[in-house]
Design goal:
about 240 residues, about 5% strand, mainly alpha, globular, 11 helices, 3 strands
C-alpha cells in the first residue's frame, strides 16, 4: 500500500518545526520522524486543527438510547473519511468502507478524533519502520478498537494493512502462535500476533534489500523490546495521547 507523504505530513505538521525536548523516552534527539511529530504536542494540535476544520456534528446516544438525552459530538463522516484515505493511500474502496466500520466504535456513522489519530500513527510508523514502537505505545488503544464482535479476522486484516503487513504473513503468524479470533482474543494475543508479524516482515525486508548481517544485528539491538515477561495488560502500557 502506498502512502502520500505530502498529504500525511501536511495534516500532522511534520517538517514545520524542530524537536528540542529530550524528556520523552520514545522521542529521539535526532531529526524527528513523522511518528515523533504526531506524538508531540505540536503534532496533536495540528491534527486537532485539521479535524475541527473537516469534522461535522454527529448525534450520539447514551447507553439508554434516549433521543432526549442524545448529544452532538464532532466526527469525520464516512464519506469524508473515505475521501481522505483515498488521498492518503491506495487502499481499495471496499477495504476503506470496512475500515470505517471498525473505527466507528460508537456506531455514529463517523470516525472520531482518537480513531483518526490511531490510523495516522500507523501510516506514520510504517513509513519509517517504527511499527514496533507504534504497537507498544498505542497497542492498548488499537486493541480496544477490536472490542467484542470486532475481533474477527476482517478487523485484524485491516489493521494489518495499516501496519504494512501482508494478509498471508499475518495469518501464518496467527496459526503458528495459535492465536484465537473473536471474543476470546486477549490483549496479550493481540500483542504477540502483531509483534511476531512485524518482526517477520522486517526480517523479510532486510533480506530483500541485502543488508549486511552486522547492520541487521545493530538494527535489532536498537529495536524496543516491550514484550517481556512483565505484566502485559493494557493498563500497564502508555495510552493514546488523544483522550
Amino acid at each position: 500500500m502506498k502512502v502520500d507523504d505530502d498529504v500525511l505530513h501536511g495534516i500532522i505538521g511534520h517538517g514545520a518545526y524542530t524537536h528540542t525536548s529530550s524528556t520523552s523516552s520514545y522521542r529521539s534527539s535526532s531529526a524527528a520522524t513523522p511518528l515523533d511529530t504526531l506524538l508531540s504536542p505540536q503534532g496533536v494540535a495540528s491534527l486537532n486543527k485539521w479535524f475541527l476544520a473537516h469534522a461535522q456534528g454527529v448525534c450520539t446516544r447514551p447507553a439508554s438510547g434516549s433521543l432526549r438525552s442524545a448529544s452532538k459530538v464532532k466526527g469525520l463522516m464516512e464519506c469524508d473519511f473515505v475521501a481522505l484515505m483515498k488521498k492518503l493511500t491506495d487502499m481499495p474502496d471496499h477495504d476503506l468502507l470496512d475500515l470505517t466500520d471498525v473505527l466507528d466504535t460508537e456506531l455514529r456513522g463517523a470516525v472520531g478524533l482518537k480513531e483518526l489519530f490511531l490510523v495516522l500513527a500507523l501510516l506514520c510508523a510504517r513509513a519509517v519502520d517504527q511499527r514496533v514502537k507504534a504497537l507498544y505505545l498505542l497497542g492498548p488503544d488499537l486493541y480496544h478498537l477490536l472490542s467484542g464482535d470486532r475481533r474477527g479476522w476482517q478487523a485484524i486484516r485491516l489493521l494489518g494493512l495499516l501496519f504494512e503487513l501482508k494478509e498471508n504473513a499475518l495469518w501464518e503468524s496467527r496459526v503458528q502462535l495459535e492465536v484465537p479470533l473473536g471474543a476470546t482474543l486477549t490483549f496479550q494475543d493481540f500483542q504477540l500476533l502483531f509483534f511476531a508479524s512485524i518482526t517477520s516482515a522486517s526480517k523479510s525486508d532486510s533480506r530483500q534489500k541485502s543488508l549486511p548481517a552486522q547492520g541487521s544485528r545493530e538494527e535489532r539491538a536498537d529495536t524496543p523490546a516491550p514484550f517481556g515477561n512483565k505484566d502485559s495488560s493494557p493498563s500497564s502500557h502508555p495510552s493514546c495521547v488523544i483522550q
